[in-house]
Amino acid sequence: MRSAISLLIMAWIFGTGCRSSNVVVTQFTDDGYYRSSSGSSQIRDQIRESFSAVRRIQSNSIYRTYYFSPEQLPSEDELAGAEFGSIALFSDVDTHSTAGTAVILSIERGRALLLTAAHVISFQDTILHYSDEMATLVEAVSVKESVNQFIFTDKGITMFEPIVADFRRDLAAAVTTTSVTDTDLRALSLPPGNAERIDWGDVAFAVGYPRGVQMVSSGVISLSDHPVRKFTMDFSINRGFSGGALFAVRNDGTGLQWVGTITSAMGEREYYLGPADPLNREYRAGQPYSGELIIRSSPRIYYGIANATDIDQVRQFLREWRLLLHDEGFLIPGYL
Fold first, then answer.
1. 3-class DSSP state for residue 77?
2. 289, 330 in Cβ contact below 8 A?
């Protein structure tokens, strides 16, 4: 019996030894890197290099707000040409700040040409605050007193000023006002692509500074019927990504092309009841509140739905304003 079992075992060993097997041999390269999400070291290097031209920007605007007596609220017509300080009950000063991302298009004679989203660097000169009871009456007026805008470079911050904004496309151009060199900032070297060739499911990367954090996000592109914001992506973007660069992956192995500018995320305004005095320290979380309540609102972002103005719209924007840019000392690169 034992010899019979031994013969069976020997037959199985020799049988499997003669049988062909499909063994996959994986060769690992000892380059010291982990595998990137794109699976391409070329794309990883291009993203790293793009951060020399895709930079964080910030704008701080100071407004003086004039408040009028609730018993004598003026109309908009009555405020035309009026001296707000003489008719206001009191005034105070506050600061409005926005943060975003800009792409360096060109550096000429120590000045850099920036492209970003218009809503990031544009501030209204005058803001009217209408009464909730009667929309024709104004309860306060905010007047812009000053604006400080700067871009982060490798050597610190450099001031800039807007020169043109297109709110339909949500694009704006700006120039630095202090001298920079190519060691501080560099123009984007990745070539622009063709928006007409983008299709459903194409792989893309967003590069920018959400919440001031240098970041890259990857996803796929969906097409939109919107006349300007042609691309919708499944990026999980946050505030600060506006003005960032959208790169798409070529299928011929040449890597990335610049195909658009990140302009917005999907969202809506949410209304809720809150304390009339948000700085009141008397109330505590989880405890009953007996103070005055008012209706407040805040924007709510739908993460995972992002919009971009495509590269063809960027080209048109720059060409429409090429004479102004020329007066500022910049020539639009021929490939744009």
1. helix
2. no
